[in-house]
Amino acid sequence: MALAGQCQMPRLSKVNLFTLFSLWMELFPSSEQQKKSQVKCLQLVHNYLSDNEKKPSLRMGLPIVVKNMKIIGLHCSSTDLHAGQIALIKHGSRLKNCDLYFSRKPCSTCLKMIVNAGVNRISYWPADPEISLQNEVSSPMTTDDAKLDAKAVERLKSNSRARVCVLLQPLVCYMMQFVEETSTKFDFIQKIAKSQPDSNTDFYTTCRQERIKEYESLFLISNEETHKQILMTIGLENLCENPYFSNLRQNMKDLVLVLATVAASVPVFGCFGFYNSESWQANETDHQGLSQEIARHCMIQARLLAYRTEDHKTGVGAIIWAEEKSRSCDGTGPMYFVGCGYNAFPVGSEYADFPHMDDKQKDREIRKFRYIIHAEQNALTFRCREIKPDERSMIFVTKCPCDECVPLIKGAGIKQIYAGDVDAGKKKADISYMKFGELEGVSKFTWQLNPLHTNALDFHEPTARESKSFFINSFYD
């Protein structure tokens, strides 16, 4: 992702990054969505959108667990458990002094256990809470229960040491414009446009508008009076007066726009997706790809991380997930978070401590490459769990890993790489991308046309042999 050339580009604050992650985890693909997708894997993209991306039912609050300002857990609700309960099961007393970020204000059942664990701060998205207060999705009896629960939550809040609050920061100047410009130029969008010269190249704008509409209906309260009533019920009367109320709604809308814009840069488009051409005939578990929904979901997380970079030219994000051998209680199924990072200068350094010039600077001594920590390196350094050799682990990187990072990824025991491959096989002065193409022992899934199809818009019924190969290798659209 090429960034603007200003001295210090716009960055997402950590608070906004955590908030966006909590919202995005609410949309983690459920097993039911994945099964539907597999059955309909050869339908046109507009059919896919209408069948599988309708407004989902309200899911429970989804916590981002943060310790010392570093993410140590990403969770979402399951069929049986609220996300707060899952966080407690997963982390237990390790939640002490942690900050939790919810996409909904948690219910009393979750809050009492989380408070008891000794968390430091609980921050939540100021819209419809975990137990919905909106009449259109609730019966009168359920609404009464929701109001009683909201009162219980307020009592728990007022009598606990944990700070329970709305922590919503406005975007920095030009951030929204910056996200729009860089998303349009992202590798995946450009690759689709170049490979489909006869198709509608304005697909990105269409996709973005669909995502904005979908996410606004899910995360925002369209009616201002209804929103005020909900805020008063959940103890936020002080935010119902202007200019606080109008500022709150604008900040919420801006963050939803950022999320929709970034999500559109990893689009659902025809037969494009993350595929491994080299091991198409292999049946080993390590060569089996994730469902396209999960791969896309994790890549968008990496894209969000890229907007935290200190590098004024190139932002890169990386996130590591792994897959347990059995399904857990988490709404992510067997998937669990390992670590994440973005490219930045060494911890504790000031902005002017190191060179920021790229390879176009003739004086090699003042180029940045020998000083900047790559996204993959930060993800590995600050991981919260060990990478187990007997479980499938995967790293999602917004850019092709360079020669400095490829050996680290392999040496750490990561089984799969999901990345863009625009720079693969290239050498750019001080930085090279030659080793990615030569890498063996690690499966590489790059953004491309499904190898079973020759045209992104040309769907055909596969032969029995094609179908068998397709499903064995888990390459689902």
TrEMBL record:
<dbReference type="GO" id="GO:0005737">
    <property type="term" value="C:cytoplasm"/>
</dbReference>
<comment type="similarity">
    <text>Belongs to the cytidine and deoxycytidylate deaminase family.</text>
</comment>
<feature type="domain" description="CMP/dCMP-type deaminase">
    <location>
        <begin position="293"/>
        <end position="433"/>
    </location>
</feature>
<dbReference type="InterPro" id="IPR015517">
    <property type="entry name" value="dCMP_deaminase-rel"/>
</dbReference>
<protein>
    <recommendedName>
        <fullName>Cytidine and dCMP deaminase domain-containing protein 1</fullName>
        <ecNumber>3.5.4.5</ecNumber>
    </recommendedName>
</protein>
<keyword id="KW-0479">Metal-binding</keyword>
<dbReference type="GO" id="GO:0008270">
    <property type="term" value="F:zinc ion binding"/>
</dbReference>
<dbReference type="InterPro" id="IPR016193">
    <property type="entry name" value="Cytidine_deaminase-like"/>
</dbReference>
<feature type="domain" description="CMP/dCMP-type deaminase">
    <location>
        <begin position="36"/>
        <end position="135"/>
    </location>
</feature>
<dbReference type="Pfam" id="PF00383">
    <property type="entry name" value="dCMP_cyt_deam_1"/>
</dbReference>
<dbReference type="InterPro" id="IPR035105">
    <property type="entry name" value="Deoxycytidylate_deaminase_dom"/>
</dbReference>
<keyword id="KW-0677">Repeat</keyword>
<dbReference type="GO" id="GO:0009165">
    <property type="term" value="P:nucleotide biosynthetic process"/>
</dbReference>
<dbReference type="InterPro" id="IPR016192">
    <property type="entry name" value="APOBEC/CMP_deaminase_Zn-bd"/>
</dbReference>
<keyword id="KW-0378">Hydrolase</keyword>
<dbReference type="GO" id="GO:0004132">
    <property type="term" value="F:dCMP deaminase activity"/>
</dbReference>
<keyword id="KW-0862">Zinc</keyword>
<dbReference type="InterPro" id="IPR002125">
    <property type="entry name" value="CMP_dCMP_dom"/>
</dbReference>
<dbReference type="GO" id="GO:0004126">
    <property type="term" value="F:cytidine deaminase activity"/>
</dbReference>
